[in-house]
Amino acid sequence: MKFGDLTELAVRNLREAMLRNSLTTLGVAVGVASLVAMLSLGVGLQQFASRRLASSGLFNAIFVTSRLSFQGFERRGSESAGSSASSEKALPLDESARQEFLKLDNVTEANPQVRFMTEVRFGNTPYPTMVAGVPESGRTDGAFDGMQGTFFSGASADEAILQMDFAKDLSSQPASLIGKDLVLRYAKRQALGTQPNSGISATANHSAQASGGGFSVVPEEKQLRIVGITESEPEGGFGGFGRIRVFIPLQVAEDLRATEVSDLRDVVNSAVSADRSYASLTVRVKNPTEVEGVEAAIKKMGFDTFSLLDTTRNLRLFFTVIDLLLGIFGSLALAVATLGIVNTLVMAILERRREIGIFKALGADDHDVQKLFFTEAGVMGFIGGVFGVGIGWFIGRCLTWGTNIYLKRQGLPSVDISAVPLWLALGAIGFAILVSLIAGFYPASRAARLNPVEALRYE
Fold first, then answer.
1. Contacting residues for 244 by C-beta, under 8 A, at least 6 apart
2. How far are the Cα atoms of 199, 334, 401 from residue 331, in angstroms, in the given order?
3. Phi, psi of 317, rounded to the nearest 5 degrees
């Protein structure tokens, strides 16, 4: 029997018991809907987490630090496989190293992580806090999306962006701070010998110059205009300490030459030089797929590195397990629906015994009868799968809508927690057909074994 004729006959048979077959198909649709709704939450949350991490610029970032510890000892014996065995001397992470990183293939920028403790004066009231420099690329990497106000007008603009909690400390109405000025009071790092009246003895001055350099700490002030307020703390880098509450352009932060923790390390190491060293550098590559190669090259140069490759692998594993658990629970309703298919087809055998007998008497063999019942089960699975995907998508949209209403009342940005990609929709329909065919195996086999003589005598 041709497939077209078989399908037409199966659809006609399903129409004869419309109510019962519709309820069975609806059971399949409900099972598929629960499966799709649960998996759409897992997929949506995974995509949301990936978008948030990607917008923060962490996927294509490598955090580089020197192998010199705070006490001046080199960390030997714990170097990774990518490190050069001959690199016994740990190199300072200074401007020359930064330029070497920029020469590597696929590297777009290498920015120092400039962060320092300071005192902010606003309205003649001091507020101790942490300040960090933000590169120009922060304008487009999504870290400041949804902020109040604007990003820095230029790389050398005397402007600041405040973290929301700190802005609330300054004023009960944070938005009113935009356009106002504040003053940074910080300790400036100044080379010895540049100030004749600095109070440093000639002996200390000569000793510092003989050892290759030195610096003194000079109190300074900097007036900045508040241009924006951000809700969350943008990516501040790896290995930092303290919470960043004030952000300024990176170039301005470098020009301030504020004293950092790495300066004290340089003094202990007697490594103070004309090229000041950095506590760490953030190296960005063109594409996240290039991170591993660039990271290995930097390690061979004698530096320690860190990236989020391992973290993202663990994140994908976590969501895979979550999707698996959600899929198992979602499949329970579909398993119940298979019982409805079995019941419907068994009842169809009892009601259509005479029809099956005539069908066999006209020349149909057991295989044709079996295919007919398989086709009926497959049609119910297909229709139920299509409607189930639509219902599951609608449930996911309702969950997203309800979640965003709650977030809006809390003053938080909206999110998309549900997603039904094409592979999920097609997979759900295919799974529904497969389950329906499995459910129809027993009824189809029973119908195929029916004796035509007994079937024709059945009233």
1. 115, 130, 131, 132, 163, 233, 234, 236
2. 78, 5, 25
3. -65, -40
